[in-house]
C-alpha cells in the first residue's frame, strides 16, 4: 500500500519525488528540507507595489490611554474640522447671528433680521424705514458689541437696509422704461 502524502497548498508546486533517503535520527535533513521549502515560498511572494508601504504603529502612542486613533465624538470631529479649515470666525459669527434677539433685544429683533455676513460687513434688513433708522443709530454700538464677543475686526461695518420697494412689473411682458409709480395708483 502506498504511503499517504501531505496535502499541497494552492499555488505551490507539487513535491519533488526523492529517492529513498536513509533514516536520519537527528532530523537534520528534515530541517534543511523545511527551510528550503519556506525560503522558496518567501521568494515567490511579490514585493508591495511601489509607493505603498506597510504602516508601522508608533509604540509611544499605543496603549490603554485615549489617542487620535480612537473613535471620536461628532462634536469633537466637527471642531477639529472647523479649526483645520480656518472657519472658526465664520462659525462664531453665524452662531451669534442665530441669537439675534439676544443681541439687539426682542422688540428690534421682531422688525429686523441679519441677511448676510461677508468681508467683515453685516447686512441687516428691516421691515420699515423707521426701524432701519433706529438700527442705523445703533450700528456703532452693535459693531462694538459684536467685536467684543467675536474678536477684534470681525465686523467692521453694519449695513442697514429698509424694506424692499414694490415691483411695478406685472406679467412676463412689460415695457422696460415704462410708466412706473406716479402720484396716483389708478
Structural notes for this entry:
- 39% of the residues lie in helices and 10% in strands.
- The chain contains six helices and three strands.
- A three-stranded mixed sheet has the order 1-2-3.
- Strand 2 (121-126), helix 6 and strand 3 form a beta-alpha-beta unit.
- InterPro entries: DciA-like.
- The ordered H/E elements are HHHHHEEHE
Number of discrete helical segments: 6
Structural class: mainly alpha
CATH architecture of the domain at 74-161: 2-Layer Sandwich
Strand neighbour order, sheet with most strands? 1-2-3
Radius of gyration: 39 Å
Count the E strands.
3
Strand portion, in percent?
5-15%
- Per CATH, the class of the domain at 74-161 reads Alpha Beta
The average pLDDT value, as a whole number, equals: 76
Shape: elongated
Our measurement of the CA-to-CA distance between the termini, rounded to an integer number of angstroms, reads: 118 Å
Describe what is shown at a glance.
Residues 1-73, 167-186 are annotated as: Disordered. The protein is mainly α. The chain has a domain at 74-161: GMP Synthetase, Chain A, domain 3, CATH 3.30.300.
Task: Supply the key terms.
mainly alpha, GMP Synthetase, Chain A, domain 3, elongated, 186 residues
How is the secondary structure organized here?
Blueprint: H1 28-44, H2 74-85, H3 88-98, H4 100-104, H5 106-111, E1 112-118, E2 121-126, H6 129-150, E3 157-161
Parallel strand pairs: 2-3
Antiparallel strand pairs: 1-2
